[in-house]
Amino acid sequence: MLPPSAADDDSLRIIYNRLMIDPADAEPSPDRDNLTRRRLMTLLKVGVTIAGLTLVLRSLDLRAILTIIGDVNWSWVAVGAVLMMLSLVVRAYRWHLLLRGSNSTIRFGRLLALYLIGSFFNAFLPSGLGGDVVRAAEAAQDVDADVAVGTVLVDRLTGLMALFAMALLVLPFRPAGFPDRLTVTIAAISLAGLLFGFTLIDGRLFHRLIRILPIRIITLGDGFLERLAVAIQNCGGKTLAGALLVSVLFNLMQVSWWAATGRALHLAVPFSYFLLIVPIMALALLVPSIGGLGVRENLAPLLFGGAGITPEQAVALTLLVFGLERVASLLGAPVYLSTSLRRNREQKQLDEAVAPQNH
Question: Measuring CA to CA, which residue among 259, 277, 279 is closest to residue 269?
């Protein structure tokens, strides 16, 4: 979170409580409960990452992986890194469209800064508070908390929906050696993801789904699901269509940086193959871990087996992508630092102005 504003702390608490805590179960000291939850989530993420890396490295040749990574083409590495950095601007614009559709007047520059900071948090802080929570809490300073959370969720959702749609479109044109079992898996995941996505962004279907849920879930967060449905519906069909189009552009960039990284490692993997594999790699980020590390490495040998590359090459690819994602996320560090310094300065000026009045 961006220190050290008390209003920011209150906003973060509101967002986090609505996402994670049922008020009926809240203890007298909710801050302690939140801290415990975050620590447990952090331990889970670290544990999954360590276990995943241990499992994959025990079965593969680590020296071969390091040799493959050490022989990179730095020109293609640079292309991949630039695409990742530019994608942050594209995603910030998608969020801007959704907020504008909800009658928000937040400047695009501020949203871009929040997206960069959120990316930095996701990349380097294995905490229970991801970058999405940071973005929602910060946006809640300017719009209603339900709108902030709703647009952040739809922002993520439209990205996944576009990726699933692209995978389904290219599936009939898959390479000859593509495994049949993997074809069925990708088709099932993509169809299920699109069905869930359309259910969520269609206000009528979402309201019907809410009505059949147990009352305990409906009242979670003081009726948060109902208010979330309203916030999503208020975005409007035109706004959602625009967000989906921007998501197509972003996902083409995402597939492109995977392909560029493959070229950097001298891997002859067709671009269409990455269109099929990247959706599953994107879903792997939803598994509690440090940026998908350890999870994607276990999936890579299976997913890229049909491309004719070795398991060591597949794992080297995911590790290099992980490293480049960390590099791209460093853009958020100076933004976070400058914002923190500015807020410290503003808080100090406010304290100095209030101090004489207290005497």
Answer: 259
Instruction: For the chain, give every domain's residue range.
Output: 6-353
Q: What whole-number distance in Å separates Cα of residue 157 and Cα of residue 155?
A: 6
Rounded CA-CA distance 359/16 in Å is 37
- Give how far Cα 174 sits from Cα of 15, 281, 346, Å: 42, 17, 56
pLDDT of residue 29: 45
For residues 339 and 121, is the Cβ–Cβ distance under 8 A? no
Per this entry, what is the length of the chain? 359
pLDDT higher at 27 or 211: 211
Global pTM reads 0.80
- Residue 171 CA: distances (Å) to CA of 4, 179, 188, 241, 305: 49, 12, 12, 23, 16
Question: Using CB atoms within 10 A of its CB, is residue 284 exposed (0-12), middle (13-18) or buried (19+)?
Answer: buried
Please compute the mean of the pLDDT values over residues 192-215 and round it to a whole number.
76
Residue type, 334: P
Does 172 sit behind a cis peptide bond, omega within 30 degrees of 0 on the bond before it? Answer: no
**pLDDT of res. 315:** 96
| Local confidence band at 70 (pLDDT 50, 70, 90 cut-offs) | very high
